[in-house]
């Protein structure tokens, strides 16, 4: 086998371009996903059946089907729905970039909502009762007690979810986007050096994952500051 | 009922391929996971290092990239290895073999951690008393340790199998005629992408639901104490 380092260096700029697309996809869908996950998680913890059944079905569907199917449903499937095709929405849904972000957002919202629900339910009862005893309204309680506490608890698990999203973002290459994997595939189609280019792409993915893990360690220690003091 | 303009049987045959792929990858993935866990807990520093590098690298790489590497790079790798042994014929790696390899390597990395944790949770006294009864290390492992580990590892392995089942869809990208691939074929000739990707999504949902059912049944079987408790 003739291994060529040159091809890696030659096409490195293209891979870096792809890396930025991957990062954009992950960061935008992560932010939108969290915004969608919060109300879903709060609804899931409700005691009323009609409030919690809709998010339950949503989460069940998105966690039980492959991400690839979800992306294809959005990108290819949307053209079959007249409501989308014949309205202004078609301008959005015909763009693979929008479809990838749409699908990733819905997907990560389902997983994050489940994580946040778990965190909310693991907040000690006493803290919620204390909030009630102080006369906080339900919305104040959510804003001041439940969400800050839940974020501290959910952080380590959410870090894992972000890594899974980073890996899942490679699927954007299946709907013609030139993310890191997509860039690698187009380069290989020209040079036919799959091992070299995929190796380079893999190293970039590992570096991205390592940076994310590092960033999350920092956020975690900051959010859970009050616990660190106890060990002193 | 399940006709879908005559493409129902195609989806069913694809589902069968998906199931075969998932079960084959589960089998090899469990073997890799057991070896990985044994390596992580061994006294040899080299083995521990190799296992740590393996789990760290694989858990940071997108599964799609792994599938692409093994499919497009697999035959190159195998041929270069074989030529060292004087075998110079062309070796082809088909999509099924590449898929099983990629999915079991990915599953194995996560399973290594689950099994390592389960193995560590078994008190050392269990090993010692097995030795005191005159069992060889191998016999002690298979008769005493493995049955107890099984119970602890099952919930984690069940979750990993769900992930594996969903990841099988990725192998359709390299042309394996699984459920996802057949849905694409049906879409090509009917121009009804939403119908067929939704049908595929529902079949995946059914498969993951059945997998959940089986793993919770296995969890009950692996916990004889709970069974006695229930019948009493």
Structural class of chain A: mainly alpha
How much strand of chain A?
A: under 5%
Mean pLDDT of chain B: 90
Total E-strand runs of chain B: 0
Please give a structural write-up.
The complex is a heterodimer of chains A (232) and B (232). Chain A is an all-alpha fold. Chain A contains eleven helices and no strands. Helices cover 80% and strands 0% of the residues of chain A. In chain A, helix 1 packs across helix 10 (194-223) and helix 2 (49-64) crosses helix 6. The longest helix of chain A has 40 residues, at 5-44. Chain B is an all-alpha fold. Chain B is built from nine helices and no strands. The mean pLDDT of chain B is 90. At the A-B interface, helix 2, helix 3, helix 8, helix 9 and helix 10 of A face helix 2, helix 3, helix 6, helix 7 and helix 8 of B.
Structure, briefly:
Chain A has 232 residues and is mostly helical. Chain A has 11 helices and no strands.
Helix/strand layout:
The complex is a heterodimer of chains A (232) and B (232).
Chain A: H1 5-44, H2 49-64, H3 67-75, H4 82-85, H5 89-93, H6 96-121, H7 125-133, H8 138-168, H9 180-191, H10 194-223, H11 225-228
Helix pairs in contact in A: 1-2, 1-6, 1-9, 1-10, 2-6, 3-6, 6-8, 7-8, 8-10, 9-10
Chain B: H1 8-40, H2 45-60, H3 63-84, H4 95-121, H5 124-132, H6 137-167, H7 179-190, H8 193-221, H9 224-231
Supply database-style keywords.
heterodimer; A: 232 residues; mainly alpha; flat; B: 232 residues; 81% helix
